[in-house]
Structure prediction request, 1000 residues.
Amino acid sequence: MSTVSTAAVALALSLAAGQASAQTEVEEIVVTGSFIAGTPEDAALPVDVISSAELEKQGSPSTTELIKSLTISGPVLGDSNQFSTSAQGAIGAGSINMRGLGPQRTLVLFNGRRFMSTDPLTGVDTNLIPTAAIGRVELLKDGAAATYGSDAIGGVINFITKKTFSGFEVSGEYRYVDGTDGEYNMSAAWGWQGERGSAFIAAGYQHRSELDTQERDWAYQDYTTNPSGWSFLSNPGFYVARLGVDLPTIPGTPDPNYGDAVGSIREASCGAVGGYEGVYQSGASQLPACYYSYVPFANLIEETDRYQLYGELNFDLTDTTEFFLEGMYSKTDVPNIGYSPSYPPTQGPFGPGSTQYFAPKSNPYVQAFLAANPQVFASAAAAGAYAAIPTSGLQLTLWRPFASGGNPAFGYDGQKGERSYELFRIATGLKGELDVAGGIGWDLAFTYSRNQAYGVTRDILINRLDRALRGLGGANCTGNTPGANGCEWLNPFSTAYPGNPLLGGTNPTYNPAQANSPALSRWLYDDQVGETTNELYVVDLVFNGTTGFELPGGVVNWAAGAQWRSSEQTRRLGSNFYDRNITPCPVPGDTSCAIQTGPYMFLGQSQPYYVDESIYAVFGEMNLPILDNLNAALALRFEDYGGETGSTTNPKLSMKWDATDWFSMRGSVGTTFRGPTPTDRAPGGATGLSGIQAAGNAFKSVDAFGNSAIGPEQALTYSIGALFDFGDVRAMVDYWSITLEDQIVRVPANVVANRVANGPGNGAQLVNCADPLRYLVTFSNNNACVQGVTMGSDISRVRSDLVNGPELKTSGIDATLDYSYPGDVFGGRLSLHGTVSYVLEYEQDAFIVNGVTVTPSYEAVGFANYDRLPGTIPEWRGAFYAEYDNGDHNVRATINHIDGVTDNRGPTVVNTGFSPVPCTVANAASTTGCQLVTFGQEVDAFTTLDLTYRVFLPWDTTLTASILNVTDEDPSASRIEYSYDPAIGNVYGRNFKIGLRKKF
Prediction:
């Protein structure tokens, strides 16, 4: 493939063939979207090209920044991933999401060959692409399954290495970002061009510094402004004094696990350590709560290090046969991910539920707490009853072990996690030409990729927490005597820490003698160590040539080939606690618990597994020059997945008509698809926890299983476009449409539970045992469901099956305009460019399972969609620049605009105090103790101005300087944890970048 110099040249890929006669001869190359060689001007497909020189003029954006700047991009990974459900295991990874259809529906190629996808949801980790080796990026904005196979529904992005590089080059770049230690990149490249071959090596290192949430005043909001990042399960907490475990002696109805309540208290230190003294409302019940924000303990940007190495060798074995070899190694390390000091205790010794932890009165810290807070008891009689029963104590009702005061095991900061992603890829093969039938080109290639994703996330073990509250904590504890023989007591109260280390609040109740030791705190935790290894083997064989048959416009060309793909995925665990097959219950060694939710206080479990699949494909393509000014291309691909999934056949027709020397039209229509992954088809799955609204929002087990009968997604795509070339003014407009059927999606657990159990509700509502979705819900009492007796609170787990779901239809318009000023401007050239993508519709049909409507249809365009697919979809995005080029000097001013959206969830309500009736959005304005929250209801547009100056200095040296976000725009408010929408805004603010490149 030949190198294209600027992004503006991307327009030439679609301009009329008549323009070519006015230019020098153009080399025939294989353009992304076809296996038939041709000139860029012949292309009937909407392909954009971004060269390395163009990226330099943009200020050398990172891969994530480049992808986010594309006007056809939807929500992607790469920025603040921690609180995104689809990305919690992929912090530090990147993705591309063309047309907002999801990263799994964008095909990524590297030098025209499939790049490994690392996860069914997040797709390819684009941060593993070796940026120092990239010569250009080609972007096909059209479905391409007829050419490339699975995943190419939203489009294709092809990263192409520097093919003609010669010499040695080093470069470095530093970026100043307020509130961080900066970001810096270094790279080196060497290339050799010989008579019979070439070689190229590139290495790069990139460092991204941590950006704490406290460095941006918009990221941390108080509870009544944005409650999203706040939790009622806190420390300081709310506690209920009870008369022992199952020992009720005062008249009344006892708790199923505890004795009667004789008093309660919310710790007085709540406000002093940054908490909010509010009320937690559960159904008709209202409890005083200390709301705590975990946002200050998280980071907007995590410290990240990336290492990348790429090498390529091309050699002519004979005059007609060429050998090639490519090797790549990339690694991303994210060593210190900031999390909450501890997760909320949503599971306890008796299964799901947050109110099961009990600190007995024999705990010396309980004794000290009650001595300092005698107002806990409702009366003297209640205090006497409490004192008379040896097994009395405090139920830790709205509480978590570590919160506002940080975690002593991690230096009174939040707990830390780790992620690491490592990729090894090798591609080799032969290509040449057979001296038959006028010359038949052939290309035989083998590609092997291996990706390892390693993660460490820590959580408290239920059994250890329970033992520590009873004086049997610590790694050196022997025997069963509380507080003796190396056994330690855990202090569950705020008296254990001096204050909030990040917000600066001092705790007035702190007692250094009651502090928990770092060793005891660390002992409570287990490290959930998991490693997922993906391996991909691909063999490609492609032939191309001419038929010898001529149409009025020229000779008919063809290409045909076959592909074999084999993928394997292996999951390994580094902890027996993490393995549900070994430790399914709260107590290690026990396998008899009725509800097997595992040993962790909050997190779910995994299991080791191995899955694989093999896919076979054949394909063909023809280029039909019907007339001198009318060209058509036909493509057809057959892929066989085997088993119950079966096979799929996808055709495509594309055409281009050069009506005049200044006006052309193009269009395409075809089907495309995405096949299920091995994990999609595996019979096993993962079990997690989710708050089930029909059970009073109590956390219950959600089983996510694969489906061996899952079929591929099918899509119908078509587009039609007009292209104009008036010399100094060039433009193109394309209408595109995608109709996706049989989406591979999961049945939403909450929707199922609400339907079966008549939710949402407080758990007391009766269920419908005859509901058609009853089979997806497991109830307590051996899954017995008795009409008129079984309630929502009896739900023990819900199945979230993988199915082929509803139809999706999206369409829109892409437009590009280029203008070059015809004369000199102070001895230089002035050009203007604009690209706009407008989404006309994004309609999700009703989700129907077994004849039952699970979710109604909805329109996603212009909405944030935080609680549903596909995520944020603005109506339009635009990129505009003015460029001045004068010899060695180049200046560019770029404006990027992303339209705003509406939060489809509507306003919410918070309890600021006790209210006479439950707070709702409808009564919030008129009810005491209720407050309406409209924060982020309208997420405003985000517009930035960037300035970049590039100069060619003597001695083959290039200097680039940029001011990004010149006007220092903050992202708009959004009612999610970080208080901004990463799909629209970014966290950098005004920042400065300088880069130097030297060639030898």
Q: What stands out?
A: The longest strand covers residues 525-551. Residues 364-372 form the longest helix (9 residues).
